[in-house]
Each structure stands twice: as C-alpha cells, then as structure tokens.
Amino acid sequence: MFAETALVTGANGNPEYSAELDDNGSDTEVAREDVKEDNEDGEEDNEAGIEEGEREEKEDEKEDEKEDEKEDEKEDEKEDEKEEEEKDDGKEDGKDENEAGVEEGEKEEKEDEIEDEKEEEKDDGKEDGKEENETGEEAINEAEELGIREEEKSENLNEETEENVADEEEKADNIGDNETAVTVDIKKIPVVFVIGGPGSGKGTQCEKIVKKYGFTHLSSGDLLRAEVASGSERGQKLTEIMEKGELVPLDTVLSLMKEAMQSKAATSKGFLIDGYPRELEQGVRFEKEVAPAKFVLCFNVSDETMTQRLLGRAITSGRVDDNEETIKKRLKTFHDVTQPVIDHYNSKGKVKMIEAEGSADSIFEMVDKVFEEEGISPSKDCFGKVIFVVGGPGSGKGTQCDLIVKKYGYTHLSSGDLLRAEVESGSERGKKLTEIMQRGELVSLDTVLELLKEAMLRKVASSKGFLIDGYPRELDQGVRFEKEICSPQFVLYFEVSDETMTKRLLGRAETSGRADDNAETIKKRLVTFHDITRPVIDHYTKQQKVKRVSAEGGKDEVFAQVEKIFDEAAATEKALKNAKVVFVIGGPGSGKGTQCANIVKDYGFCHLSSGDLLRDEVKSGSDRGQRLNAIMEKGELVPMEEVLGLLKDAVVNNLTKTSCFLIDGYPRELEQGLRFEAEIVPCSNVIYFQVSDATMTSRLLERGKNSGRVDDNEATIKKRLLTFHNQTKPVIDHYKKLGKVQEISAEKGIDDVYVEVKQFMDSKKW
C-alpha cells in the first residue's frame, strides 16, 4: 500500500508526484459512500479504479518470431508429421462450414444442392464420424439417424465469376497480415476532469457515471500503485524513486494515463480523470500530450460539510488524518492548488459546477443533466439485470415483487403504474394518454416502451436490477423491448390454476368493490391472459430463460421458490465473472482442432463446440433435444438463442472443473460473438490460426483422396474458403480493435505451430 502521493513543483518548475510506502494500510476504502475521498496530498481513495487484470495485459509482450529453419536430420520427420496433420486436421475442419442448423446466421442453401449432397454425405459419415478431432458440426451433418440436412453457407457463390472468386480469395489471403491491433484515437473519446475536495462525494458520483454512461474511471494514484504491483521494469523504478522519497515525474504519470486510456479506448464511452488536474500545469500538459477535456465536473461543497463528513468517517476509518486540525490544512491546500485550475477552465466555459450538499441521488440528477446537455447518452449496456415478471390476475406476482424488492434491492416497474402516473402528472403526454384511453383506444407500444425506458434510466445508477411487472403481455412487446432496451436475464413465471386465481379474485371482490371482480368477467380475463401469454412463454422457453414458480401456496412458500431462483442466478453470475473464454477461429484445414486438444492437455481448458453440444443434446432425448431434433429434421436453422443456451449451460456446468474455456470455431459471424459476450461472458482473447488458401486447399485435397467426401474437390473448397473469409473478416477486425486477437501462423507442422501457441498461452495468467 501507499500513503498519500504528494504533488510538488520540481526544480524545473514542473509539477511532480511523490509517494511513500505505507505499512499501516491507512489507504483503505471509506465505509461511507458519500465520503470516499482522496488522501491529504489529494490522492484519491481508489473509487472504481483500473481493473487489476489490465496491467497484466499491458505487460504481455509479443514473443520473437520463431526460426523457420530446423536441423536437417529432423526434416523427414517433420514432413511425415505435416502429412499426418493435414489428414487429421482435414477430417476435423472440413465439417466446419457444413453445420446443419448449428449457426443461425448461416446463409440459406439452394434446395437442389441439399438433396444431392445429403445422400452422398450419409455414406461418408460412417467413415469420418468417429475422427478424434471432429468439432461436432460434421458429426451432425453425417449422423444418419438425426436426418439432418447439410446446408451450404454461401447463397450466391455459383453466380460469382471465376475472376471475382480469385480476386476475393486474394484479398482474403491477406486478412490478418498486419498483426498490429487497430487502435482508436483517444482524442475522439470524451474526457472529463473530475474535481472535488476531500469529502465532496465525487467518488460516489464517478461510480454512478461509470454504471450509466459506460465511462472508464481513472486515477493517477491507482495507476502508480498498479504499475508498482505489476513488478514491471518501470514499476521497479517507481518503487526505487518512492522508497528514496523522491518525486515521480509528471511525464511518467502522463504516460501511465495515456497507456491506460489507449488500452480501454475500444470499449469505453469516455474517461473520468478523477482528482485531476490538481495544478494548472497538469491540465495544460494533459490536454497537449494526451487528449483535450470535454468539460470539468466540479463538485462544490462547503468546508463545513466536508469537515463534518470526514469527521464522521473517522469514527470507523481510524485514519490519523481524519482529525479537525489536519482536515483544515487539507482543505486549505485543496483550495489553494485547485482555484487556479477552476479559473482557467471557467474562462474557457468548460466548468460544470455541481452543488454537492444534498443526497447522492439528488446530486446525480444534476450530473445527469450536465451529461445530457453535453450530448452524452447513456450506455446501451447500462440497464444491468432485467427480469420480466409474468402471471395471471390473482397469481400473487405483485406481492412477490414487493418481497424481491425488499430482499434483493431491485426496482419494481409496472407499465400500468407508469401510464397512470403520467396521466396524473398533467403533462402534455399525459393529456394525450387520457384522450386515447377515454376513446377506448389502446396506448401505442412505442409510448409504453418510452415510459419504461425513461423510468429505468432514472433509476439505473442506483438500482441493482429491474422487475418489469406484467410484461410482456404479448410476444411483440418482448421482442421490441429486447431490440430497443435490452434482453431480460430471465422470465419469472408464476403458474397458478384458473380455479385458484378465480377464488382469489372473488375473495378480493368482497373488499375491493372492483366491477371486474365477478365470475363471468374473471373467466374472460383468464382466457385472454392464456391466449396472449402462451406465445411469450413458448418464445422464452426456447431460450432457456423461463423460471417457473408454482404459486398455489402461501406467499412465504412461494417466495422460498423465488429466493432459490435468485440465489442460483447470483451464484451463476458470480462464477461466470471468473470465467476466461478464448474464441478459436481458423479455416477448414487450419489444424485448430489439433491445437485445441494440445491446449486442453497442457492448460486444463474445457474445449466446447456448438456442434458437439447440439448432437449431445439431441442424443440425450431431453425436451430441448427433441425440439432441436424436430427443427433439424425439417432442415431449418437452429436459432441463435438455442445455441447460446447450450453454450451457457456447458460453461456453467463445467465451472466446478475449470474456469477456462476454448470455444471452437466460434463465432462464425460477428453477431454471434456480440450476443455471446452480452449474455454469457466477454471473451479474453481470440486465437486466429492463419493459413494460406493454397495450404488449406492442399490439405483438404489430400484428405479427399481417402475420405471420398464430395466437398473435397477444388471447386467446392474454393467456395468454402471464400465463405469462411467473408464471414470471418468482420469478426477478426472487431476483436483486433479491442486488442484481443492473437494471430498464429499454422503453415508448419503440428509441433512447430504449437510452440507459438504455447508462447502465447504462457504469456497469460489463466
């Protein structure tokens, strides 16, 4: 741990940092949210600092290029190995493009080709279906008992001229030649300086901004500590400087900030530079050498309030600097060094002053307004956990929602309540709603979604999740919600018999006086509920998202079931946070299956393939397996939701054995990767086995001599490779921008390729 990092002016007039090692751990987090502040010299209390794994990623350096030349006496052996690899790999990879119903994004096939190739593939499947390195997609194509129809991925390839095909292949062969990750210009990403005295509550506000707007929160103190803890050469030099009581140059601090920003630029919506600049020169240098500040968020709190908050913190913190005399000095120092900064940016019209005397939520309302005025929109990923709550009239779901709110801190939203509140507000929109309802017309779905989204945005910074009560009432509502807001974590469905619901509603009628609480009306309401709800439940059941609760018993008995669902979901979410997923991509004949097997053996990864998972699920005879079998027997594509459900279950079920996973041959299209990361876990890296089309063609043709497969001919191989490149390029480009792609040349023999794989694997902490 470090004590406070003091900023002073060096001999050359430039501001510099000094930090000392602190053995007493005084730099701990403050217990109370509204008083999380910096140490005496202005060092921040590490609110929402840089994530620990980031520094490890920055340390990883590319290994030197492998020597191509080997000893002469080993050449014959390597040639034998290469021939063996070409045969084995071909058996595995040739099926990658023939997934029947596995990848929902694949192009529809021409029906005449399906029927011709189906009969030929049945015989081939008997020979190739048992190969050790199959990823599972081939097995599905070849499994006669499943009746699965082979589908080509490219719809219009026969319309291509030979010249166009050749041109496209030449372009595809060059994909990934430049192994340098695409970088994002950090000067184009919003940067906000955050200034506030000790006890101003700016740390709490930064956390809310991060959650709602997707910004990255950076603190110079956090970066210095992280660099030292990393053990890097620079970190060791920093340790020496600080142990001698010398000053850390501003140049070093600026370098750390710039590197941190560049590492997050591809995924961050903006940067909060916390407690910075403390002196004018810092701000000037930062804007000149790193990026311009969009505005300065300044939290204004009286010295009396900050003193009171810090003294309150002292009761639990035990910090020696939380006493009135020291606090007084700290506040004076803060004002002396900060006022010139505020004056400078005020003259440029960049200071956004926030009166921060009130509650955290009321202060954030002002922060929200500033971001809105500056044209900064909430992040699309800001809503967090969303749960649809479905149940008929009298199912007791309202009571259960109240219990969930009380125990788990969710926000309970009902479209009906929101509509009534809008009408009662007397707003222009409320008046229009009144007119619509008085005419007996239905309120448009657009309006309902608008009200829901606004309510969620108001609460998102402080809510642990949302219960969307009585929604969706029909399938289109759910589909639109997912498209325009976000996907639900799951659907909580309270199942109750019509008899029980009728009995409950009639009992309520004795005291409610509601005109619709009579037997005839209740019967109609229940029929309507079942008619419109069944498609909703069927839709989300296919996605494995429906959590059914038998709600026939008392509220405590029912809530015990609800608790189990929420607790299991929380445990799964926690476990998934620790999971490390590597996408493995390579064309047919690239040898990725063989390399995956080596990684599993040496590093204990779990190797998953969507094709294998589909085949196993069908063979299991489960309800889902029967449903998938029916889909594939009809020659239809398996929806992406089904594939994602299988992958998620497989990851979760194997978390007790390992936290590291290879997802083989996935994603084939960018949308698959984005959905996987949004609904399961972000990938750590992408291993891309790069092989020239000439080599892959040679390997597949060699396989064709023995396999008898109709698709192991030069014309078909050319089409398959073109399809692979066209689908894969957007995937590789996307993950390159995130700095996650590791390209590995797979032109050599198995062992030579694995040397490079091993270098990459050893450079990471799995």
UniProtKB/TrEMBL annotation:
Segments carrying the region annotation (Disordered) are 1-175
Protein name (Swiss-Prot/TrEMBL): adenylate kinase
GO biological process entries: ATP metabolic process
Q: What SMART domains does the record point to?
A: AAA (SM00382)
Enumerate the catalysed reactions. AMP + ATP = 2 ADP
Q: Which Pfam families match?
A: ADK
Q: Is-annotated flag, keyword Kinase? A: yes
Molecular function in Gene Ontology: AMP kinase activity; ATP binding
Indicate yes or no for the key word Transferase: yes
Q: Which InterPro entries match?
A: AAA+_ATPase, Adenylat/UMP-CMP_kin, Adenylat_kinase_CS, AK1/5, P-loop_NTPase
Q: Which HAMAP family match?
A: Adenylate_kinase_Adk
